[in-house]
User: Fold this.
Amino acid sequence: MGFWKALAAAPLLALAAGGGLADEMGRMDYIQGCAGCHGETGMGQGPLAELLTIQVPDLTHLAAQNNGKFPMLEVIHIIDGRTGVRAHGGPMPVWGTLFKQDAMGESGVFGGPEAVARARILSIAYYLESIQQ
Ligand code: HEC
Assistant:
């Protein structure tokens, strides 16, 4: 069983755990997929950031910038990228599509590749919530 296949139950698990386990799963995807631009600490100084013409935002103050409340749903939509809610439609990869393609062939998973993609996005969102300053 593939790693992400095992994770297909993650949305439920993540909700039940209210963070914790989900943070750790999300952290792995964050380091692999996001840290290049947003920096390992989330403060926006990844090695790719200097190659971009627009500023890479600090992801550790999303709650602070939103009256102290982490904008979970918005963050999920921004990461997913398929819903049209983009920060500015800039260079951010469309993770919803990428994660789904990544999981193609894992049809044995309940909910299929779409469920795997959502699990990964939600886990990353929980991770980001856990690193708010
Ligand atoms: C190629 C560089 C790059 C990568 C990789 C990248 N981002 Fe971004 N991200 C940006 C840039 C630039 C912006 C601001 C402009 C925009 O949204 O296009 C941004 C914006 C965001 C925002 C909105 C922040 C705000 O202040 O509104 C979130 C949340 C975010 N990224 C999360 C992530 C996550 C999570 C990942 C990994 C799954 C990721 N990004 C991967 C470059 C990147």
In short: The CA atoms of residues 2 and 22 lie 18 Å apart.
